[in-house]
Amino acid sequence: MTHPRxxxxxxxxxxxxxxxxxxxxxxxxxxxKSLQLQAEMIEEFGACVFDVTLDCEDGAPxxxxxxxxxxxxxxxxxxxDRARVAVRVHAxxxxxxxxxxxxxxxxxxxxxxxxxxxxxxSLQDVIRAEQALTDAAAPDLPLHVLIESPAAxxxxxxxxxxxxxxxxxxxxxxxxxxxxxxxxxDGMSSQGQFTHPLxxxxxxxxxxxxxxxxxxxxxxxxxxxxxxxxMTLAASQAARQLGYTRMWSIHPNxxxxxxxxxxxxxxxxxxxxxxxxxxxxxxWAPISFDGKLQDRASYRYYWQVLERAHxxxxxxxxxxxxxxxxxxx
Length: 329
Fold this sequence. Notes:
Elements: H1 4-7, E1 21-25, H2 28-45, E2 50-55, H3 65-76, E3 85-88, H4 97-108, E4 112-117, H5 123-135, E5 143-147, H6 150-154, H7 156-161, E6 165-170, H8 172-177, H9 197-212, E7 216-219, H10 228-240, E8 246-249, H11 255-262, H12 266-281, E9 287-289, E10 292-294, H13 296-311, H14 318-321
Helix pairs in contact: 3-4, 4-5, 10-11, 12-13
């Protein structure tokens, strides 16, 4: 069976594939619960549908950074081979950064999916983080970076171009705070963040930078974590209007709404299954399907629909599921 990824090459789209949800926790009890929930949902869906990122930046008490990092190492090392666990370290200009990288990357290089670096301002920050990974004997560990200021948004394209970077996330609250009151507090709310022009522009720049370089744009938090409707609406807007393919969760109740919002609809999945099957039968030559021309450009789109369905735990028929049981995944 010819695999679609062997045929539908070209363009930068889909160069990096990640779960659509990135769940953060910074307190030990919540970290343990997050890892347990991830294990349970791996069994439920048959795939790891969200990352768990253990947080050292906001989770570590001042002066207790080393102890917190050691605790994170101990927890992450217990995760199964099917789990996807990451760590957010301190920013590159924080006194604890070098120790974080030496301890966490040095001891967990084979266990972690990536390292998240916050407050990245420039390409030089990425290079410094890359050097820290090399120094920690973790030269292959991917970097995710957090864009949190107007200057960083301005440099998003060159940051996204770095080969070690897999994903750019938008840091909403720090971005708003960096404007010295020029953006009102409502710009941090679940809906204000989708209407204020400067916030919206920043989100679009980050998404465009990621797609230009085949990286994953990861949408910011919704702080109203008890408001299920606000979470669902924000996740849908991020996925359907702004081009984001991943989103942060800060509460377990936000994980499933993110999966739902970022999943293709049943109708989209059904169309994708039929078109990819017809394309495969035609050896990927152009076809007429429901009176419309379909060729490799549209096949690539529909294949990505199937990939997203798989990433979000949607049920697929055996002929489509077979694509995700090969060595490509």
